[in-house]
Amino acid sequence: MKKLIQVTTIIAVLFLASTSVKAQFDPVMGCVVGPNGDCIPNTLLTAMPFLRIAPDARGGAMGDVGITVVPDANSIHYNASNLAFAEKSTSLALTYTPWLRELNLNDVFLLHFSGYKKLDKLATIAFGLRYFSLGEINFTDAQGINIGLGQPRELEFNVAYARKLGDYLSASLSAKYVYSNLASGQQVNGININSANAFAADIGVTYKKKSDIGGYDSQWTYGAAITNLGSKVSYTDQADVQDFLPANLGFGAGLLMNFDKYNSMSFHLELNKLLVPSPQSKTIRAADGTTPDNPDYDVNGNGIADYREKSLFSGVFGSFTDAQGGFSEEVKEMAISFGTEYWYDKQFAVRAGYYWEHQDKGDRQYLTVGLGIQYNIFGINLSYLVPTNNRRNPLDNTLRFSLIFDFEGYQAKYADN
Question: Residue 301 sits in a domain of what CATH number?
Answer without folding.
Answer: 2.40.160.40
